[in-house]
Specification:
The structure is a homotetramer of 337-residue chains. With 337 residues, chain A is an alpha/beta fold. The first copy, chain A, folds into two domains: 121 residues, Rossmann fold; 159 residues, Dihydrodipicolinate Reductase, domain 2, CATH 3.30.360.10. Helix content of chain A is 32%, strand content 21%. Chain A starts with 6 loop residues before the first strand and ends in an 11-residue tail after the last helix. Chains in contact: A-B, A-C, A-D, B-C, B-D, C-D.
């Protein structure tokens, strides 16, 4: 393993919630070294000033590819649209990249453009591996560019994969809930403490950008459905729950479900299949996704609940999981459950 | 209106959250007088000691029908099962009753017994009017016994009534969320601050007692479905949101929906139909239910979101609304939006 | 009372937390009519869009003295510095004003300028009555301009008045805590939900603008001290607690304290002296200040705790209390405890 | 280091918040092995069922000294009074003990009995080392029994040590705030979510058991004062802040203070002296205590603010820090900042 020891990693866009957490996880990783953390808006401030609890003393710098491009890998945490050119430039220099934005998640460029506008690096479009390691482990291992999934798609796909693969999903309603950190670090009327304290509110109804991503990946697994998906903001910091209500083409017994989900979890160290519905607190500050599946006799539907931490498994720690695989390391290294 | 002026009202079971709030609302009501507030567990303590913010100085007493039965009306806030005998005894004395428990909500005794066990006053079973004033206003006005609806059925029925009446509901998923006050005043592992802080958790999955109530009333409105219903606990005090995903037998345009919901709201002072999804904070400490209906082109489904305060419109202020109607008063008296 | 019936009131600066609440309280007041609510930043939006829970449908307008100056009274909720010229213009037109800013609270102009900079209406400096009705009731009743106190001075002075008047305060430490609404509606890094959730933090250490105001008023009552005052932000919306630790020149027994505080409270409907320390929740959404005084044998000090709602008694409802007095009305009208 | 490798440790009383966290920290420690975790109330349940986020699968057992006494060390997390006999029995078998209760913290038995009642193991009284490693490092290293300090004394002493040692403290007011986990796992009216949500409340006014502990240790450092100490409950889970207002016998300049606190921190890896007041979030889930000291010119006082996590540095991780020292290990092992 000497070849990978001390792989240098930069985090580009480290002043936001997910980038900062990625920087912390890389900084503590036994075989990665945090070479630099960059930020346009906060260059010159130390990460410790922004996020004391991460205890990373590094001073944020402006990204300078000449200085920062001489590394083995990069985690890019730029906004959608802004990420693509930076990712392309890093790839050009031979840097392996995990991109936290949505710029490389979709496989159909027309769909990308409908939801996000023009693409910033069309030549690279389609080169990325969709970085949900529980599904694309082998492809991630040999990838140069990994598109880290959105937090909602991560939870939804981990919840539904066994059902989707069985080809028995006729229809699915995904009622999703996220902590406020999912809305990003920007101070807005929505993210003001007084707006969200003692509040709970649906948003993005009918038009959330994670919809095409969910549909694309459900289809890839074998479920050609248009998923009903509605996110809500919860009055808490970190955490995400998806409550999935599945109409199936064939009935599932609880025993069949239990069997399918056991098989699903046993090969994946970060999946915990449990026999009571998970709370988001159960997985806080971890890369774990906790899942509960239930065959509901009353309605004939299958219910699946999946909880994860939107900043961890929904973003930064999943990026490290991908990086581990890209470097031939155990996927749990540095982010053990 | 002189005949109803100063109608004396007792609140039986006033140490719980809903009973205490009912006592406060009666105490401030221009035409009701709070004659007594009773409690087994906390007799001798003043309501002010338990709930300073209600500012009701009355000392809680043990219920004594000889002393407390000489009133015009009672709000009973006993646990399910315990309520029925007290309600029956009050009716026997000619007292008009609004019962906050589930003991008289269901019309089919077999269904009651399956979910709650033996009934405590079988002779009275079936005498009650289901106290959702927006639907049963006329019947409430002439009732001696009103069964105040559960908080989830209130929100769900107010959300779905126009669709149910149209006869076009083929299937419906109700993903419901409640503040912790909905779990009651009892101190348990679940209601401990540390358990719920930064948490969000499904409960009663597949078997919540509000299910038969929702199905009964949806059927009465014209929707003979088995609703999928799953409640969750949110890390906040008061508030409730139901997110309803309706599969319809015929397509609805947004215009048709808007028309139907406008008609629905315009006759009811506590319904607010709005053009963006409501947050639970919008209706805190009020008898208002705020509703948003959306025809979703992507999935062909109709989405309806309804927010209310589980302790107010979901319980205590709705009880006062019912009492207003039973005494021929404007339904908004003392609980103006 | 016919002369005051329907006094027209404008609220200038109604898009902030305190102005919006003032607008709601005026709107529901039995003898005031909300003539207009103004805002520079949000003109054209309805108050209901900003604060659905206030249920005030009025559309915010740009302030136009020609149209808005023809009223009996105004509540001005402008930032410090910006308030003075508007207040002066309103006074010029004969409008009675309650000013929520700090522009007219201080009596020493040099001190004002040290803390706030140049004054915007020096001719009017010194004309205002300091609007703490529990202390300056008579003066408020005949005032044309009332300077509504800061939230912290309100709590501190209500807590300490009996001790200050006794002339026995040798030294006092005031450790103060406020909900996040006290930091205002502006979206900043500090007021972001993620910054304050699960957090508690001192601020303004050694240099908070309420210091000279507290010292000025303590001195006026008879305590010529430099109070130690440190505010902290709490992870909640509305609420304020001051914990006061008083070194006295003479010992106080609990009986003496109880006597002094009973006398203090019995003349003031909004003061509640209680025998256990108050929580901020006890006074939420009310004009009440709840106070507990304790003679501590261990240390010889006197402890006083006072809780209020920073948006209500700390600002908007106290403004209405002042307005009531200025119009010869009962001070509790429209803001009954 | 081979002699200490794999030291077996039991945690007695692991179903409470601090015991469970201690079990987790021992379980992940590179040189300790979690031999057993015991609980009377929850024997038979797995720790994972109680605290999923700790990810410790061990099943709780009834304490059985014959089976559990054959270990190198124990962390005892029993209630005050109940701890002493168990501690004595473990010592008797040669087990090194860190006791999280107050049973061995005080050096004066009369004072112990006044605050806690009769002692459960008077023969052992006085044998313990007070386990604040930043002060008693050498003594801890050779101790068989360490009395882990209370959370408030830990924060207070770390805040005040440099001043106390200088002999210049004339008087001190400590206004302390703790998250609800500090009130323990027992479900009570006080710890109910609805009681503490949006609340903030003083408690233990004038008579909190940490008072004699604070005074004893301040005296040991050189400050013979009766500290004014008042704790408050905050509406959050984990976190503690002490705001200390010190009247000094001689004036301190900011430079002198900075110097003294730099010296204090530089020898202790868990102390962070910072130039702005810390929030409790800055130290969440860590063994760090963050301190800010300020010479206040206005009042002539010295202010010191110290933040820690009451379950970590205030209890469980400090116990591991002590255990590290007792086994000759680096104090940071397994609890690195």
């Amino acid at each position: 393993m000497s070849c990978v020891a001390e792989a240098r990693v930069i985090v580009a866009g480290a002043s936001g919630y997910t980038g900062a957490l990625a920087a912390r996880l890389v900084d503590r990783h036994p075989l990665f070294a945090l070479h630099a953390a960059t930020s346009r808006s906060d260059a010159g401030r130390s990460l410790d000033a922004l996020y004391p609890y991460h205890r990373v003393g590094l001073v944020l710098e402006e990204l300078d590819l000449d200085r920062h491009g001489e590394v083995e890998a990069a985690i890019v945490a730029y906004p959608h649209g802004a990420a693509a050119p930076v990712v392309a430039a890093l790839l050009q220099r031979g840097v392996r990249v995990v991109d936290l934005s949505a710029d490389f998640r979709l496989r159909d460029r027309a769909i990308y453009e409908r939801w996000y506008g023009e693409h910033g690096a069309p030549d690279r479009f389609g080169e990325a591996v969709y970085g949900l390691p529980e599904i694309y482990e082998a492809q991630v291992a040999s990838a140069r560019l990994v598109a880290n999934p959105g937090c909602y798609p991560t939870a939804t796909l981990l919840a539904l994969a066994p059902l989707a693969r069985s080809g028995t999903i006729a229809d699915v309603v995904v009622d999703a809930k996220s902590g406020v950190s999912g809305a990003g670090r920007k101070a807005t009327e929505t993210t003001h403490f007084v707006s969200m304290d003692e509040n709970f509110v649906p948003y993005g109804v009918g038009a959330h950008r994670h919809m095409p991503e969910i549909d694309q990946e459900l289809a890839a697994l074998g479920a050609a459905v248009t998923a009903t998906f509605t996110p809500h903001l919860m009055p808490l910091d970190q955490g995400e729950l998806v409550s999935c209500y599945v109409t199936t083409t064939e009935p599932w017994s609880q025993e069949q479900l239990d069997g399918a989900y056991e098989v699903w979890a046993e090969r994946h160290p970060f999946l915990e299949v449990v026999d009571t519905p998970p709370g988001v607190r159960d997985v806080r500050d971890s890369n774990v996704c906790r899942i509960h599946a239930r065959a509901d006799e009353r309605t004939g539907k299958v219910f699946v609940f999946a909880a994860l931490d939107n900043l961890w498994k929904g973003a930064a720690s999943q990026a490290v999981q991908n990086l581990n695989l890209m470097f031939g390391l155990p996927e749990t290294l540095g982010i053990e459950p």
